[in-house]
Amino acid sequence: MISLKDMSSPSSMFAAYASMSASIVLFKTMFNQLVPHPVQRYILSTIRCFFKPRSSLLTFIIEEKNGMAPNLIYDASEIYLCTKISPDAERLKISQSPKEKNLTVKFVESEKIIDTFEGFELHWRFVHEESQASRQTDGDNTNHSWKPDKRFFELSFQKKHKSTVLDAYLPFVLNKAKKIKEEKKVVKLHTLAYSPSYSGSCIWDSLDLQHPSTFDTLALDPDLKKAIIADLDRFVERKEFYRRVGKAWKRGYLLYGPPGTGKSSLIAAMANYLRFDVYDLQLGNLRHDSDLRKLLLGTANKSILVIEDVDCTVDLPDRQTKSSGDGNGRKRDVQLTLSGLLNFIDGLWSSCGDERIIIFTTNHKEKLDPALLRPGRMDMHIHMSFCTTHGFKLLASNYLGIHSHWLFGQIEDLILTTEVTPAEVAEELMKSNDADVSLEGLLKLLKRKRIESQETKGESDEIEIPEAKRLKTEETENKINANGKLLE
Ligand SMILES: Nc1ncnc2c1ncn2[C@@H]1O[C@H](COP(=O)(O)OP(=O)(O)OP(=O)(O)O)[C@@H](O)[C@H]1O
Ligand SMILES: [Mg+2]
């Protein structure tokens, strides 16, 4: 041992230093030889950690996968951070898959983003570790292992904000990402297709719903339009309400009115407004209640199930008969019943999913089975009627971009006294970009229709005013809706 007293001269100091160095070398050699490598690594990392200055930062690692399953926080972070890309970003990945309408922007390695939340900063870093093949030799055996690609985000912030990040910031990111996803969602139309691989039974086939109809383009009584939008808004916001009262989270609408009054357009407008997929269930293609059940169970949440022309697409037998004619006098082996459909929709199907809307349409409400009309079955009955003067003005503005014209007066007078559908008006307005030509065409059509209706009714000297009648019926209808059906 060398004591401090011995280090009084340079030569003794040198001797002491040399002896210390020799001891360190000896210690290192023995440490390397005697202590197994994993233990060495553990000891060194513990010592390093002990002497490392304490950081005031905390970093969350958000990996792409949670075992085999996707990590929802990673997915949400990726979507959210795309809205936060700095204008200085130099490299980004852009892609588009054949089935998608929108481009996807992704980060390249080491992209850094600074976000602020409740007045503090959060530093995001994207890390992509590329896949690697590694070779390990263990005695005579050589193992080849494959480390797959690893992607993750590092989220760093001051430690004191840990609970705010966990309880408020990350839920905020999840929520924001959900909204962005909903906005980008391409609404799909699912229709029935025969599948030879499923022994000829029907399966859902989907394509993008490209129906451009929206509530802005729909010629509909303004109050009724407002009531429908308010009803949809209330429906999607009331998750907790439905849970509390123990009701399945579904809503039913019955749309009725003559052909060409916009029933299908209203369905498309609803789907575009809510960004819900549409399932078009053509009952005529089905034979058994069991097929129907299978298909209904194959529908997703946040969707609209549509059964068009429920009075005539299929000759649904009543509760006793289990077969129906095919129109040629022959009997077709159909075991599809209206009660089967309704029971399943009200019962099992709606309790298996969330945010389901079901819409029946018909041209003849009076022909419907009373089971469909009974209170509580369809929440709102919506009467789609002939074109009104308000509807005409909206269509003229949509199709021709005009809000007034010297022919408007005559056309509006005739619309008040003639039964013309929005589809017929729209067709005339589409015939030319020249407003004079289109409006004159419409005027001719209205005059012709009025003469025809007077001839069939034999009322040459007395003009009936269907519009006034219509307004009266609509008024009563809307009152019923507002009192009985609209409000839960
Ligand atoms: N209320 C409306 N507002 C705007 N356009 C409409 C309206 N009604 C009909 N149209 C136009 O007419 C076309 C046909 O209308 P739609 O298919 O919606 O009628 P429908 O009531 O479903 O008819 P059907 O009973 O024959 O199924 C639409 O594509 C649209 O261009
Ligand atoms: Mg239709």
From TrEMBL:
Pfam families: AAA, AAA_assoc, AAA_lid_At3g28540. Residues 453-488 are annotated as: Disordered. InterPro entries: AAA+_ATPase, AAA_N_dom, At3g28540-like_C, ATPase_AAA_core, ATPase_AAA_CS, Mitochondrial_chaperone_BCS1, P-loop_NTPase. The lineage of its organism: Eukaryota, Viridiplantae, Streptophyta, Embryophyta, Tracheophyta. Keywords: ATP-binding, Hydrolase, Magnesium, Nucleotide-binding. Residues 453-478 have a biased composition (Basic and acidic residues). Residues 249-388 form the AAA+ ATPase domain. Belongs to the AAA ATPase family. BCS1 subfamily. It comes from Nyssa sinensis. GO terms for biological process: response to stress. One of its GO terms (molecular function) is ATP binding. It catalyses: ATP + H2O = ADP + phosphate + H(+). This is AAA+ ATPase domain-containing protein.
